[in-house]
Amino acid sequence: MAAADRERENRAESRTPRFRLDQPRTPRPKLLPDYDPEAFGRLSERIARFLGTGRFIVWMTIVIILWVVWNVAAPDHLRFDQYPFIFLTLMLSLQASYAAPLILLAQNRQDDRDRVNLEQDRKQNERSIADTEYLTREIASLRMGLGEVATRDWIRSELQDLVKELEEQRNGQHGDGRAESRVVFPSEGGRGRDAGDR
């Protein structure tokens, strides 16, 4: 019974190859040529940028005019594209069939860059909003703290009240020549600190 189980296990192992996880796989042969997509993308952007310039339109117009003039005015044995200009049509179609995907590839790369820039701008805006909220809270706490600090006008009014009380005490001396001594606290001065003093 044990021999049959071992034989079944050996058959199952021989059918499915076991891959070791501690060793890298051997690379498979590729049918397509290997290329750098970043370099190809930069090249496509350069071509698409050139296709969108006035210089390309001028050069293409000059080539087409020369093509038509040569194939109309040149001797018969030197003409390579007769009147319907089928070869010219084929060349323009070929140029358009390559230009459209290159332009789309360049646009996709630009969209990816715009998306990354937009994400960075969004994160920067979030940081700016957080910094602004923090500064707003700090300014509010400073204003609350300053609300409890004595202002110059309030201190001046308290000192004037104290001077008046001292003058009254000096003028109102008792018959024995002693001045009435009384400790005056700022809260007893009859004038408390309110929002108008600030």
UniProtKB/TrEMBL annotation:
Task: Output the InterPro entries linked to this UniProt entry.
Answer: DUF1003
Specify the taxonomic lineage: Bacteria, Bacillati, Actinomycetota, Actinomycetes, Kitasatosporales
Region: Disordered; residue ranges are: 1-30, 166-198
State the superkingdom. Answer: Bacteria
**What UniProt keywords are attached to this protein's entry?**
Membrane, Transmembrane, Transmembrane helix
Species in which this protein is naturally found: Streptomyces alfalfae
| The protein, known as | DUF1003 domain-containing protein
Q: Does the keyword Transmembrane apply?
A: yes
Bias (Basic and acidic residues) ranges: 1-25, 166-181
Task: Tell me where the transmembrane regions lie.
Answer: 56-73, 85-105
